[in-house]
Here is the input.
Amino acid sequence: MRANRCARVCARLILLVIVTATALLAPPPPLFAADARGTPLADPGLPATVPVIGRTWPVGLRPRVLRGWEPPATVYGPGHRGVDLAAPAGTPVRAVAPGRVAFAGRVAGRGVISVDLAGTGDPPLRTTYEPVTAAVEEGEEVEPGEVIGTVDASGSHCTTTCLHWGLRRGEDYLNPLSLLPPWLLPRGPSRLLPLT
Here is the structure.
């Protein structure tokens, strides 16, 4: 009886190891959006990866992601073309990587900053931050961690104040979290499966 129970427990532990290893070794999701047939929406001539050049989060040390990146199924389809990060009004907004400010101003009543990231090809990767009050001007060079503005109290599409952080290459939207090294990314809670 005891040997039977031990064999079941061992079998479950082996299954748990296999499932965990499979999840950890699975390829990451694609960084470019695709339509319902799986056809990439991005220009196939562009590199399929985003370089991990981010050195810091745009707000805080490890902010809560209120809404993640949800690529649209079609070019004009619904989705979320960036990530929303929890941040109270007045929070400093920092450049995640080195670059040059391409735009700092208002768009549709919201403060927006766009930074073309250095050494990321032609067209370069461009990060966007909104709603913000800019502390930089167009054409200014910025370094990782440099304060480029502060989160505005209004203009957010979140239910609370937040920073919308986006990433584009040309007209193609990408996941801005892909700029950050894995050790900076949020981790979900660890969960153990029951043995019985």
Remarks:
- The two ends are 16 Å apart (CA to CA).
- The mean pLDDT is 80.
